[in-house]
Design goal:
The complex is a heterotrimer of chains A (192), B (259) and C (557). Chain A has 192 residues and is an all-alpha fold. Chain A has one domain: Arp2/3 complex 21 kDa subunit ARPC3, CATH 1.10.1760. Chain A has eight helices and no strands. Chain B has ten helices and two strands. A two-stranded antiparallel ribbon of chain B has the order 1-2. In chain B, strand 1 and strand 2 form a beta hairpin. Chain C is of the alpha/beta class. The chains are: A mainly alpha (192), B mainly alpha (259), C alpha/beta (557). The interface between B and C is large, with 39 and 57 residues. The complex binds adenosine-5'-triphosphate (2 copies) and magnesium ion (2 copies).
């Protein structure tokens, strides 16, 4: 973390806090879908829970952004007091690690749309493995579990990857990101 | 007040241990006992606004209920399909029923444990204690603390953005769909203002001499004392008692590597 | 002895900005010296503070050249954080300089950073709070403090760190006249007790001049054109000062037109003036005695027994006022007296807890939002709250575009306003990157382009230099002449005196006066003080002259 500017850490944690609230807001939506469609309903919107790691990594572009932002968001979610409990922090770390691994594979150099979507998929995979053991998926029918997995991967790619990119790009247009990697890229593009 | 005086890091550590231990249990009795004893412990050792407490607990109750039904319905084929239990004229395999109940009560007892932490801990103290006990980097810890400040501000921020649009003559809508599209329109400005505020806070902190290195003092010092170990022992004992009771009643079922 | 601070040929340019914001600045400051930094809004004063405390160039996106030497060492050679033990800055916007939740933690934060031992931290917190007279707020949550208290807390945080150099960036912009005088007194006292060097950035010079005689004057291009005493500046650089729109002390402004003898020292303060009041008996005092009969116009807005309560605290109590068409009304009162709350209710932004506001005889709640906004325009106290777009141009063009005005006309109108307010070179900037004063002007411009029947403005002129203040008031005056009613909250008594037909004074949530300004000035001083008001300088000077006359009359006959 030594090459991080302090400003970047604070911005990252502000993003995490905002998305912790968003996550909480989506919890009832998840529960509703869960109630209607069963566990797979949850997987439909599961991608939303990785979105901050994609956004933070895409904006700041430094090693650790994806992992740290997701971890902080999960911690804040627990601290606000309306989540699944302290284990959620572990889930957050595992989700963050999934996205981080994808960015690491590009040596934190490539932030094209495909990489962002892959990062969403990365989180889907790690979170699913974790959920399988902790969430008691073991008690469910195997075919059903596979369906859940496929839905979650798609959700990770679309909601976390695509939507995350769209939000960040919208944010860059407002000019607030001018001193971060994404903002610099956008402004250079404009000037050139 | 005992619970409020504990070292926040140790308290968190203890609770995480119990939660992990709970994950190893697949029967409904152990978590039920732990759920009740945790609430009793809160009652005895903490100063809590109970109305708020139950308000926080409510969503967990709903969640647990949902968990129960869905696990029951989507459970895989039981080993002993013969034994059934009847609820509202529907027959369910007894085994699925027990597993569903176990998972649901587990949600509750984990909820009670985390609420114990949340209701007796000052978050700022928790983060400070993480720096002091776990040697968390001050740069990250204070960064998070600065971000945490936005939490109460977000509602005001939304109001500010809404009013700006109102005053500039952007039509307001009151239908649910209209509101939704409005929130979408506000999402970017809201994030932008969070980032802007974060940036300014960072500047303010740095100009007050914050560097993020460890050579700093603390007005509020946190140490680990006998009390904290006592709390760990109490919680482990409660867990042991719960497991033993469940065992005596013949319910105890451990996680046996099923995938 | 080497000087405390030396700045040599400092230039700074922000990334993607075509011209230097600071160019070729040089000056030095001795240990214990005080200096006033003056210049038009947007000339780079706040930017300079960030250079002095070492945050720039480290956090700067752009280029900086030249040297800043503090205590004999260039700022660049200090390790991050080290410089803040020497240089303490109280920033311009009190909202943005806190990072903790409570008063105690906030002060402690700075001390922890510089590794003050724990036992001493406690002590220093109490000391600092005592200095600014806020001992009772040690455990308060910062967000519950009023504007003035926040400003004082910001000062306490810095004082606790015991810097050798204290930099204050417009520390009184949002304070009521009495709170302002109190704060300046506090700083004077502290300076004589602690002996730090002091850099004061201000637009309103009154009361500061006897604390700091030397001033550093900036021009619009961000270079220094004068460094010396105020008296000297008035003698040798009067044209430039006027051209750049730098304020002079109010007393000086009044007498300057009557000064013929260039060698004579003009009075800077009321005390100077009172010593020689007899010299100035020829001054013509312009009275604001437009004889519009207040009661003859139709009622526009009527506020009927309005009360407001937040968090069990009564903020407005049973307020009944009427505002007629085409009136120029000022609302004044101490910090926290409820002005902003009242104006928000009048504008229909907030609903009162009880009571009703009628617009054209119809309760506000029954108005369609779109129609209402054509009637009433509103400018927020915090300029940033006004902004909805990403560039300065779009921000002003917004309401015109909403109304479907033709593009070429929009360009013409926006261009004209930008020019008047001195924002032409910022059309493509993001509103948030403007200086504090520029933001204020932009937020007003967004409302002035439109054609509402009434404008409500919450402290529209704070942080302005003389020229922009004049332009802004001219624009408001012009709207007023064209028939727009103006309701303006302000702490500036001169503005009230010169422009308002009527003043409404709030005190602890109640209307305590509602009359012509001239009548208000006749209230006992004690009462005005209690309400957080001060007499306008003209009135004070006039009275001094009158006293002088009375004194002279018997002896001469
Ligand atoms: N981060 C930034 N990026 C681009 N331009 C900036 C930035 N910060 C400030 N500026 C510009 O630099 C100029 C000087 O700003 P500064 O805030 O120093 O002015 P100021 O003299 O303090 O004015 P005021 O009296 O209104 O507070 C302004 O024109 C502003 O638009
Ligand atoms: N939502 C709220 N909750 C609690 N107190 C509030 C709230 N809004 C305003 N107040 C309090 O009401 C009082 C009046 O606030 P208001 O902003 O109207 O004052 P003001 O006259 O505009 O002061 P200033 O000159 O400092 O702008 C203050 O003491 C403020 O702290
Ligand atoms: Mg400034
Ligand atoms: Mg106000």
């Amino acid at each position: 973390m030594t090459n991080w500017r302090f400003k970047e850490i604070v911005v990252l944690s502000a993003l995490s806090v905002v998305f912790a609230v968003v996550y909480l807001a989506f919890l009832p939506v998840g529960k509703l879908l869960f109630g209607i469609l069963g566990p797979i309903g949850y997987d439909l919107i599961f991608g939303i829970w990785f979105i901050v790691s994609i956004i933070a990594a895409y904006i700041i572009r430094k090693p650790g952004a994806a992992f740290l932002s997701e971890t902080i968001a999960a911690t804040i979610e627990v601290l606000i007091g309306n989540a699944v409990g302290p284990m959620l922090i572990i889930s957050g770390m595992i989700q963050g690690a999934g996205a981080e691994a994808v960015f690491a594979a590009t040596r934190w150099k490539n932030y094209s749309i495909w990489v962002l979507m892959l990062a969403g998929v990365g989180s889907s995979i790690t979170s699913f493995i974790y959920g399988y053991f902790m969430g008691g998926f073991a008690a469910l029918d195997t075919g059903y579990v596979i369906a859940m997995f496929v839905v979650r991967v798609i959700s990770g790619a679309l909601i976390a990857g695509l939507l995350g990119k769209a939000i960040s790009d919208g944010l860059a247009k407002t000019g607030v990101l001018s001193s971060y990697a994404l903002g610099k890229e956008v402004r250079k593009g404009k000037v050139a | 007040m005992f619970l409020h005086q504990l070292n926040p890091t140790m308290k968190a550590f203890t609770i995480v241990i119990i939660v992990i231990l709970l994950a190893l249990i697949f029967d409904p009795i152990t978590p039920s006992i732990l759920f009740l004893t945790t609430i009793i412990l809160m009652f005895v050792g903490g100063k809590v606004n109970w109305k708020r407490y139950f308000l926080y607990l409510l969503p967990f109750l709903l969640f647990a209920f949902g968990m129960f039904w869905t696990t029951l319905i989507f459970a895989k084929q039981p080993d002993l399909p013969g034994q059934t239990i009847t609820i509202l004229t529907f027959d369910f395999p007894r085994e699925s029923f027990i597993v569903a109940l176990a998972l649901a009560v587990r949600v509750l007892s984990v909820a009670a444990l985390s609420l114990l932490f949340i209701f007796t801990t000052n978050i700022v103290h928790f983060i400070l204690s993480l720096i002091q006990q776990l040697k968390l980097s001050p740069k990250i810890a204070y960064g998070v603390l600065a971000g945490y400040r936005f939490l109460p501000m977000m509602k005001d921020e939304l109001k500010v953005i809404r009013e700006a649009h109102r005053i500039r003559g952007v039509n307001q809508v009151s239908t649910i769909r209209g509101k939704w599209s409005q929130y979408k329109r506000y999402a970017i400005p809201l994030l932008a203002s969070a980032i802007r505020k974060a940036e300014r806070t960072a500047i303010a902190m740095e100009s007050k001499g914050f560097t993020g290195d460890r050579s700093r003092t603390f007005l509020k010092q946190f140490t680990v004392s006998g009390k904290d170990w006592l709390f760990l022992v109490i919680m482990l004992t409660l867990y042991a008692v719960a497991v033993y009771t469940s065992y005596s009643l013949g319910f105890l079922k451990l996680y046996d590597g099923e995938l | 002895m080497t000087p405390h601070v030396t700045v040599q040929d400092l230039s700074l340019r922000f990334e993607f900005v075509e011209r230097d914001t600071l160019s070729g600045i040089s000056f030095s400051l001795e240990q214990g010296e005080s200096i006033l930094v003056l210049g038009p809004s947007g000339c780079g004063k706040s930017t300079l503070t960030l250079c002095l405390n070492g945050l720039y160039p480290r956090e700067l996106d752009g280029a900086l050249s030249g040297d800043i030497i503090i205590n004999g060492k260039p700022t660049l050679s200090y390790k991050p954080g080290q410089l803040s033990r020497i240089v303490g800055v109280v920033f311009q916007d009190p909202e943005t300089q806190f990072c903790m939740l409570t008063v105690e933690d906030e002060i402690a934060f700075g001390l922890e950073n510089i590794a003050v031992p724990r036992e001493e931290i406690e002590e220093r917190i109490d000391d600092a709070l005592r200095l600014v007279d806020m001992e009772h707020f040690k455990q308060s949550t910062i967000s519950t403090l009023s504007g003035g208290q926040k400003q004082k807390l910001a000062l306490a945080c810095i004082l606790a760190m015991r810097p050798n150099l204290l930099i204050l960036d417009e520390p009184t912009a949002n304070l009521d006249p009495i709170a302002r005088i109190d704060l300046i007194q506090t700083i004077k006292r502290l300076k004589s007790e602690l002996g730090f060097s002091l850099i004061i950035i201000e637009h309103q010079l009154d009361q500061w001049t006897d604390l700091a005689n030397r001033c550093l004057m900036f021009d619009k291009n961000g270079s220094v054109f004068f460094d010396g005493s105020m008296q000297q500046a008035i003698r040798s650089h009067r044209k430039e000062i006027e051209g750049e729109g730098i304020w002079l002390p109010k007393v000086t402004q009044q007498v300057l037109p009557y000064v013929n003898d260039k060698t004579h020292d003009v009075p800077l303060t009321l005390e100077d003036f009172s010593r020689e009041a007899h010299l100035w008996s020829g001054i013509q005092w312009d009275e604001n005695v437009e004889n519009i009969e207040l009661e003859t116009q139709d009622i526009f807005l009527e506020c009927n027994q309005v009360s407001y309560i937040a968090n069990d605290k009564t903020i407005l109590k049973d307020i009944s006022i009427t505002i007629r068409e085409h009136e120029f009304v000022a609302i004044a009162g101490a910090n926290g007296s409820g002005k902003t709350t009242l104006s928000r209710i009048l504008a229909g932004l907030q609903r009162p807890v009880s009571g009703t506001v009628f617009l054209g005889g119809k309760p506000l709640t029954e108005w369609n939002e779109g129609e209402l906004r054509k009637e009433i325009g509103y400018v927020f106290q915090n300029p940033e709250h006004q902004f909805v777009m990403n560039t300065v141009y779009d921000e002003i063009a917004f309401s015109l575009q909403m109304k479907g005005v033709h593009e070429s006309e929009i360009q013409e109108r926006v261009g004209r306003i930008l020019k008047l307010l001195g924002l032409t070179s910022y059309t493509k900037n993001h509103p948030f990157t403007l200086s504090q004063g520029q933001k204020r002007r932009l937020s007003i411009a967004t409302m002035i382009v439109d054609e509402q029947k009434m404008l409500i403005l919450d402290e529209p002129t704070f942080g302005q230099d003389a020229a922009t203040n004049y332009e802004m008031m001219l624009m408001l005056e012009e709207r007023y002449q064209r028939g727009t009613g103006i309701v303006m909250i302000t702490h500036d008594m001169e503005l009230v005196h010169n422009y308002a037909d009527r003043i409404i004074v709030l005190h602890e949530g109640e209307v305590v006066a509602d009359c012509r300004p001239a009548k208000l000035w006749q209230q006992p001083d004690r009462l005005l003080r209690e309400w957080g008001l001060d007499l306008p300088i003209q009135v004070k000077m006039q009275r001094l002259c009158k006293k002088e006359d009375q004194y002279h009359v018997p002896t001469s006959t």
